[in-house]
Design goal:
The protein has 287 residues and is an alpha+beta fold. It has a domain of 81 residues: Orthogonal Bundle (Endonuclease Iii, domain 2). A hairpin with a 2-residue loop joins strand 3 and strand 4. The C terminus is likely disordered.
């Protein structure tokens, strides 16, 4: 796909740049007025024009689904508790959508994210794609799909270590082989309740509740799930439990379920985006 024929689709309330750069996915690249990347195995160009998006003619349905244009954001916001910390995050992160990612791509990407910052995760993701994914072309530039589990399963540990994965290489290789050997059917998990999906995901080496919850939210669309990473733990400690010194992870998880409600995943993404980009850079009143 060189220069794709584009269609305009309604996209009220989405901020494309924020959504693609909010720490959910790590491969979209600014290109001219828009972004180039891949939706699963398809090369794609996306551009925002006011309340419309320009998308390739043959990827309209895929783009709508990927960008979660069906999410009723006003309804999401109405379920949130009224507190200044979350309200500030909602204002700052306005326009972010929880993307619907391919399950394997999401699992693999977050497996390689452990103890890494967003910029580092992006570098690793792009390197894995460039070395082992399919080379695609869109808008006159090359992009790469994420390699499937069968592709990674056929690699050696040294192949993956060369992608700067460190200790994450062994976990990614083991996960790919488990999926390629049908030990775990990722696509079949979609029919199960969240708790059962989480339990199954935690069978993969390197996957605990945090990564499993990321996959539940960003791949399976379980919008009630709230991953707790270092940024979310920080905001919870500083703003919601400033006087409490010790926490059990289960306590924080239960608080998030009860307090942030059925769209806790959106609350998480707003808080994560706000705090990651503004922590100790703004007056305290903004938090």
């Amino acid at each position: 796909m060189g220069n794709p024929a584009l269609s305009r689709i309604a996209a009220e309330g989405i901020d494309l740049a924020k959504s693609l750069n909010s720490g959910q996915v790590f491969h979209w690249t600014q290109h001219g007025k828009g972004f180039v990347g891949a939706i699963d195995q398809e090369p794609c160009y996306l551009e925002q024009s006011g309340n419309q998006l320009l998308v390739p003619n043959d990827l309209i349905a895929q783009a709508r689904r990927y960008l979660a244009l069906d999410h009723r954001i006003e309804e999401v916001h109405r379920t949130f508790p009224n507190d200044p910390t979350l309200s500030a995050a909602v204002r700052y992160a306005a326009g972010i959508r929880i993307l619907r990612q391919p399950v394997w791509e999401c699992l693999a990407t977050f497996l390689t994210s452990a103890l890494k910052q967003v910029a580092h995760i992006r570098g690793i993701s792009l390197l894995v794609r460039e070395r082992y994914g399919r080379k695609l072309e869109v808008a006159g530039t090359a992009v790469f799909s994420y390699p499937g589990p069968e592709v990674i399963a056929a690699l050696t540990l040294d192949d993956l270590l060369a992608c700067r994965l460190g200790f994450r290489a062994a976990n990614l290789l083991a996960a790919a082989r488990m999926v390629a050997d049908d030990e775990i059917d990722l696509d079949g998990l979609a029919k199960l309740p969240s708790d059962e999906i989480r339990t199954t995901l935690c069978r993969f080496p390197g996957v605990g509740d945090k990564i499993a919850n990321c996959v539940l939210l960003f791949a399976f669309g379980k919008l009630e799930v709230m991953p707790i990473d270092v940024w979310i733990e920080r905001v919870l400690r500083e703003k919601y439990f400033p006087k409490k010194k010790k926490f059990r992870p289960a306590e924080l998880a239960e608080f998030c379920r009860q307090y942030f409600g059925p769209y806790a995943g959106y609350a998480q993404q707003y808080l994560f985006h706000h705090w990651r980009l503004t922590y100790r850079k703004e007056p305290a009143a903004r938090i």
